[in-house]
Specification:
Elements lengths: L7 H7 L2 H6 L3 H17 L5 H19 L6 H9 L1 H12 L3 H4 L2 H12 L11 H30 L2
């Protein structure tokens, strides 16, 4: 498909759920197709509203494709541990797919990646650890100006 020259009707005829699902990774393909559609919108062509609508439909397809993961834990765990998911996340970040990251499954996946797997959460750390971090912050606030002043004084003596 020639994204640059094809008219809207040709592109619309080829961008269907059936053609997206045929691909090995339909989510990744849908994200890339959405980006290509947004590039056509950026050209400010007369039919850019049609491209926006088609891009929204492809984004909606992407989000509906994730919905079954909400209800079946085995699918969600498989999706989370799949190496293709990393590529999907990197591509979605690079292409600024905001709606994709607003989906509850993606929010859970990002929280899992950020805070840790197996239910490990930052809140589960002991109070001693939190106390040590807070004391270190105070120590750092005091230590930095003193070390900066010491380096300044020693540097000006030469």
């Amino acid at each position: 498909m020639d994204w640059e020259r094809d008219d809207f009707e040709k592109i619309k005829a080829r961008v269907t759920a059936k053609t997206l699902v045929i691909d090995e990774n339909p989510l990744l393909l849908a994200i890339k197709v959405t980006e290509k559609l947004h590039e056509r919108v950026a050209k400010k062509e007369p039919n850019s509203d049609d491209f926006i609508e088609l891009a929204n439909q492809v984004e909606e397809f992407t989000l509906r494709f994730l919905d079954p993961l909400k209800h079946v834990k085995a699918f969600r765990e498989n999706f989370s541990s799949n190496p293709e998911t990393d590529l999907l996340l990197e591509t979605a970040i690079k292409l600024k797919q905001k709606k994709f990251f607003d989906h509850p499954i993606m929010i859970d996946l990002m929280n899992e990646r950020w805070y840790g797997y197996d239910g490990e959460d930052v809140k589960d750390y002991s109070p001693v650890w939190w106390w040590l971090l807070n004391v270190w912050c105070l120590f750092d606030v005091v230590l930095f100006p003193l070390s900066f002043l010491l380096a300044f004084v020693l540097g000006n003596q030469n």
